[in-house]
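Researcher: Here's a chain I'd like modeled. Treat it as a single chain, no partners, no ligands.
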Amino acid sequence: MSSSPPLSPAPSMSGDTLSNKVPVGILGVGAYAPSEVVTNEELTRHLDTTDEWIVARTGIRERRFLPEGENTTDMCVQAARQALEESGTQARELNAIIIATFTFDQLLPSTALTVAERLGAPQAVALDLNQAACSGGLYGIWTGVHLLQNAHFRRVLVIGAEALSRITDPMDRSTRVFFGDAAGAAVLGPVEEGAGVLSWSLGGALSYGVEVPAGGTREPFGPEVVGTGRQYLKMNGPEVWEQVLTRLPPSVEEALKLVSLTADEVDHYVFHQANKNLVERLMDMLGQKREKATTTIETLGNTGAATIFTVLRRLREVDRPRPGEHVLISVIGAGFLWGSMCLRQQEPAA
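Model: Modeled as a single isolated chain. Structure tokens:
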């Protein structure tokens, strides 16, 4: 694994959307996970670990793996259809489809274009975010908000999806127990003034703490790679832990500061589902009750770019957020890329 630079202050970009001519919010959310459940006990049959160790270190009890014959785009379509239905949007009304994934079906053609074809969205601009990793969902929303400032755009579909079972070494305990497969989607569109996305803060610092070494132009995939395992995801757990706790609290604070909100005024925290212990630690650092952060990692594992959508969908299933409530989304992924975004749920139509 390549060495990473020392942890240091990193440049960030932030802003608020209160001055946007078009306020943008999430109109519908969808999520999909394969039916194949893989429990901790199943993994212990061929990995040197225990159910107790996995639960204590990660909070994960099970995850979902894509069965043979199904691919990332299959999950994208399922999640998208649910989001479209909830938002009352027809696929043909979509002006853009943004898909964040680094576990695409194949290098070419475009995953977003493939999904647009399957959904029946001929007018949608197809955009692929291929290397934002676990931050891809939020970066996709951020991109969609900006696209919707164009008067010709009224509906944007953002999808985060990963088939991480296809890119983790089945015999590597340090990665195999953490990850699962899923997709999530959100339909974005105009909302009332003062609602929707209010502010954001993004940042990045180059690191090889999470990487897939082979498969690019520097180390093309070939027969000589197969025996090395360099085609699989590699992760430096302690570095990830340090990056999360160093980068996310200031990002959250900046996003809230931009709209004059305090951490106490946030009703729901939606963190990237990397590790339940990390989510709880972040809530403690922010001085917040842990129950304000809904989690899905216990049953889905870390599903990369899909995680924030799985949490948003879980909230929708219990009629949250309520009108006027504030939601804070915060993520970090390989790169490292991180970001936070503050939203306010719009009031119901009169």
